[in-house]
Design goal:
Elements lengths: L9 E3 L10 E12 L2 E12 L2 E3 L9 H8 L7 E7 L8 E3 L7
Antiparallel strand pairs: 1-4, 2-3, 2-5, 5-6
């Protein structure tokens, strides 16, 4: 199960440290259950433009579930996934659950 992600998980590649790139994806208090199995517990993650992120862990630990939530193949039981809206100026992140399939 994923309970938290250490700060060392995400590293900015090629971005200056004085300027924070805009966010591309953010998860807030993400939870996912399958029956009695609480797979994800309160995941908060911020991925900025230009960052490379690796998700590692034991088999059955929730890596694939997290990725499926991040791309919209699964819906969270609690929390939300926010993604960059490159089509709309002025609103940098949109709730994935509110976007149309298009």
């Amino acid at each position: 199960m994923i309970d938290h992600l250490p700060s060392s998980v995400a590293q900015v590649v090629g971005a200056p440290s004085s300027v924070a790139p805009p966010p591309e994806l953010r998860t807030e208090d993400l939870h996912k259950w399958f029956g009695d199995n609480h797979v994800l517990r309160g995941i908060d993650l911020l991925i900025r433009q230009g960052e490379m992120v690796a998700i590692v862990g034991a088999s059955g630990g929730g890596k694939t579930v997290l990725l499926k939530l991040m791309i919209g193949h699964l819906q969270p039981d609690q929390g939300r996934v926010l993604v960059a809206d490159h089509e709309s100026a002025g609103a940098p992140l949109a709730d994935l659950a509110t976007l149309s399939d298009a």
